[in-house]
Amino acid sequence: MKIGNIEFGEYPLFLAPMEDVTDPTFRLLCKRFGADMVYSEFVSADALIRNVQSTERKLNINDEERPVVIQLYGRDPEPIAEAAKMAEAAHPDIIDLNFGCPVKKVAGKGGGAGLLKDIPKMLEIIKAVVKAVNTPVTVKTRLGWDENNKIITTLAEQIQDCGAQALAIHGRTRSQMYTGSADWTLIGEVKNNPRIKIPIIGNGDVTTPERAKECFDKYGVDAVMIGRATFGNPWIFEEIKYYLKNGERMEKKPFEYYIGILKEHIEKNIEWLGEIRGIIHTRRHLASTPLLKGIDNFKQTRIAILRAQTKDELIEILDGIKEKYNLV
């Protein structure tokens, strides 16, 4: 598979763009465990051209995370094209356009998945950005607005014709938000459409190595994008890669190994954001990590983890889990 001049090997795995998740710290961690490409958080085109500092910081990328994508969202062609030029100055490998974010403050204002209700404008935006930059432009979207408007099979051809060099499809409608199950059947139809020449990236509910392999084998996608299953679980990329290569699950490492990764994530976020903000920023991962799920009588310890206010307090709790709960 190839996007622009970037060659990917067999079975590429991408880290999905997620607000307040795919920051530089987490991107580097996922890259280390085998993510073939990582995406920035959502970058507001309007905020970028207004020089909002918090948005400008989202353009910070590191050579170690390449290939890396900056993802933009907005609702009008001219501002997004202007923002794309600013993003290009940060030297990402790809610029991606977000037409999939379902949250009300984005989609309700005509951005993200809101453009699934205004396809002519969506296509105008793609054309404007492709014209404005030399960096490869890709698109991420959903199946359609709702159950009665699953338009992706037609839309994919239109997106390709506008100059997008790859298309990522989340197997839900906007109305579904993140509920129900992702439907990959239409993703497969897009990929198997003989008119489609650009790479098709599938996204939605890939939580296990077995499911990742099934998505490649059954639907024929060129790459699989993983989102929420990475929370507190950056090693999922390594596990999937091993399974795809060997046809069996890799042997689990000792509990301390995975705790060490979570502690490293905490440390890096504290270096980046300061102690309190760094801890708060990491809580989503600590609350979601599969490492701490299914432990008997763990509720009070989980509460303590999510209430810890200092690094020393949080690390002490994490270091004590193995002995307290007799884990291996």
Structure summary:
The chain is α/β, with parallel strands linked by helices.
Structure description:
- By secondary structure, this protein is an alpha/beta fold.
- It is built from 14 helices and 10 strands.
- The strands form 2 sheets. Strands 3-4-5-6-7-8-9-10 form an 8-stranded parallel beta barrel, surrounded by 6 helices.
- Helix 9 (209-219) links the parallel strand 9 and strand 10 (223-226).
- Helix 4 runs parallel beside helix 6 (119-132), helix 7 runs parallel beside helix 8 and helix 9 crosses helix 10 (236-246).
- The longest helix is centred in the last third of the chain and has 19 residues, at 255-273.
- The chain is globular.
- The model has no long low-confidence stretch (mean pLDDT 96).
CATH class of the largest domain: Alpha Beta
Biggest pleated sheet: 8 strands, parallel, barrel
- Overall, the morphology is globular
- Find the CATH topology of the largest domain: TIM Barrel
Which structural class fits the helix and strand makeup?
Answer: alpha/beta
Strand and helix map with partners:
Blueprint: E1 2-3, E2 6-7, E3 13-15, H1 24-32, E4 37-44, H2 45-49, H3 53-56, E5 68-73, H4 77-88, E6 94-99, H5 104-107, H6 119-132, E7 137-142, H7 152-161, E8 167-170, H8 185-191, E9 200-203, H9 209-219, E10 223-226, H10 236-246, H11 255-273, H12 275-288, H13 299-307, H14 311-324
Parallel strand pairs: 3-4, 3-10, 4-5, 5-6, 6-7, 7-8, 8-9, 9-10
Antiparallel strand pairs: 1-2
